[in-house]
Amino acid sequence: MEILHKIAYPSSEWGGGGWEHKQSMETETMLTTTRPMADSERLELDPNSRIHQLREMHWQKTHEAAMVRKPVLGSGEDTLTGHAKDFASLLEASDSFIQPGELIVGACLATPEAAEQINLGEYDPHYPPGHAMLVAKGLPGMRDLARDRLKGETDPAARDFLRAVEISYAAACQYVERFGGQAEHLASVERDSIRRSELVRISEICDELATGAPASFHSALQLLQFVRVFGGRGCIGRFDQWMFPFYRRDIEQKHLDREQAQELLECLFVKLNHFPEARLADNDTLRNISLAGQTTDGRDASNELTYMCIEASGKLMLPEPKINVRFFPDSPSELVRACGRALAKGANTLAMFNDEVAVPSLVKLGISLEEARGYCNDGCSELIMGGKGTIKFKVHDALPVLNDLVFDSESRRYSTFDEVMEDYKSRLAALMPAELGPARPITFPFFAASIEDCLEEASPTAARYAINGSILAQVGNAADGLAAIKKLIFDDGALTWDELRDAMNADFKGHEALQQTLKNRTAKYGNDDDYVDAIVTEIAEFFCDGVHEKSGNREGPGGKWAPGFMSFGIHRKSSTPASPDGRSKGELTANSFSPSVGMDRSGPTAALRSVAKVDLTQASHGSVFDIALHSAIVKGEDAFEKFVALLTTFLKMRSAATLQVNVIDRDTLLRARENPNSPEFRTLIVRVWGFSAVFVDLPEELQDHVIARTEHGSFMS
């Protein structure tokens, strides 16, 4: 049963109160009779439960039995229809794999012995397929839409697309039907009556999905898993929005209770950790779920399923999926506390998004306010229009640009620091796009059909939005270096350009005193120091303004260039030469829009103040701030309240679009590195950049980076 609550939001409080609202407002919110808060008791996994056993099986890698190589003959046709035929052949060759105890089934497709013979087309898992469309229409519904659209189509290219979609979804239906047959067979030989009934239910769900749209929470979850098996291995999108109607209907009609639904959800979450490309040491799996936020008309979008996802993540302590919770002024305060509890336990897969930064940044691109409110994040932290568009990006490193300036300074003879800044900004301007963002074809027919406008237009290039990111990384290092130049060369006259160049050329060998001065006696971003924060602000806002202006983004659908601040592959930047911030070659660079490694020495609140000085509502591709807290400072009731206050401060300040928190302690990380095979550390999850991983699975250079980050032992300086 649902209860309609009238909630009066007081203007003086955050969390359901409006952070900047001048007067009370009344909002109608549909709530179920029980809205869990993911308290600490709910975050413990029962060692006698099904989910505990499935997690143990995951750690034992029993799912890898499904990863088999088989001969698969491709069509040899380099067309959309050819891609669809190859997809159908791959599904036909793949086995139906069901493990003991599973309620959500399916692991992966077969691996072709001759991979070059199978061409499925292009699909980037950074952006999600249109899950809302898929769960609404079902696999047969998508097939029939393409079939009906094909009847009146005469254009050859459009017919190729529509025929490819029809073939793809027909093959998907047949695959699911075979899975149902396998479940039915297993049920016929199962001796345990309870497991037999579960297998019968799995068979019924597969038959349901092979012939129509999902009609229950269980079948909708199963459809999502099949879509993932078919290749949707990355970003998932606003899971709690399009899955909640199925949950609510089953609860209201008493087809299941909350605990049963929670178990099904956790079964799915375990499955999301099963995939053939599991190389967390090398790349992100991109498996992100976006939760809460607001509806298209600006109301609170959080629901019971939001909290259930947070609870599942906190209980399982697995690296997948990443949980990304959106907040805006009318989000319930209990949602912050639920996130805080999961993070305090060490569920470092969770990130927080601030709609007050993210939504205006998307509107800046020419996306309507209503659509912008429906954003999600991609496989990392970029802002995207889930199910409505594509994404691609290019990363520019700010530090090599500054190094080039230093070595060019001999011929340029700067007389003031303002001249240095103007030269640096002109070099950044050369990195900016000078035309509209290009469209990105989706030539994997199964997924192209689910992206809005592609099926309607019968084209793989018709996605409503094509967001192209122009990302500036290492801003913290560059700003620190510029602040050092300003202080030592221009303000104090204590350093010459020649001396700086010589020291950098020598990687500071023989110049250790200067290196220590650069590192420890000049202002550093992340400490609420206007001397350097003003430089960060000037760089970031110049870059955002320039990308928007030079690219000529237009209102409405189409290609867009979006500026942003985040990092990828930071462990591969160790070859970056010595820089004027005192960093030696081999030392890691700043992560995303965060301070340089180890330089935020005045506490997390001071670091947040530094970030908040920049107008990041112009950073339409996203902006990410990382912070590491010692696990001891979030333990206990008083400490937890301070932690919640810190999270709330991030939201109130409207600093970055994304906050990524690591609750860890260095001693534990060092013990884990010494004992990587100990069961004690199987649930030691750490945030790396836009992804999280089991710490002991990371390569040494990434472990070093996580360990080296400033570990704040208090909330204030």
Straight-line N-to-C gap:
49 Å
Q: Low-confidence parts, pLDDT < 50 over ≥5 residues?
A: 1-14, 17-34, 278-283
Total strands: 17
Name the beta content range: 5-15%
Q: Helix share of residues?
A: 40-55%
| Shape label | globular
Number of helical stretches of at least 4 residues:
24
* Overall mean confidence score, pLDDT: 90
Structural class: alpha/beta
Largest sheet features: 9 strands, mixed
Radius of gyration: 26 Å
Reconstruct the topology from this structure:
Blueprint: E1 2-9, E2 25-32, H1 50-59, E3 69-70, H2 80-93, E4 111-112, H3 131-151, H4 156-189, H5 193-211, H6 217-229, H7 239-252, H8 258-271, E5 288-292, H9 304-316, E6 322-327, H10 333-345, E7 350-354, H11 355-363, H12 369-372, E8 376-377, E9 383-384, E10 389-397, H13 398-412, H14 417-429, H15 445-448, H16 454-457, E11 465-473, H17 475-491, H18 497-505, H19 512-520, H20 530-551, E12 558-565, H21 604-612, E13 622-630, H22 637-653, E14 658-664, H23 666-674, E15 685-687, E16 692-694, H24 700-708, E17 711-712
Parallel strand pairs: 3-4, 5-6, 6-7, 10-11, 11-12, 12-13, 13-14, 13-17
Antiparallel strand pairs: 1-2, 7-14, 8-9, 15-16
Helix pairs in contact: 1-8, 2-4, 3-4, 4-5, 5-6, 6-7, 6-8, 7-9, 8-9, 9-10, 10-22, 13-14, 13-18, 17-20, 21-22
Structure, described:
The protein is of the alpha/beta class. The chain has a domain at about 380-620. Helices cover about 45% and strands about 15% of the residues. Strands 5, 6, 7, 10, 11, 12, 13, 14 and 17 form a 9-stranded mixed beta sheet that branches. A hairpin with a 4-residue loop joins β15 and β16 (about 690-695). α8 crosses α9 (about 305-315) and α9 (about 305-315) packs parallel to α10. Mean pLDDT is about 90; it is low at about 1-15, about 15-35 and about 280-285.
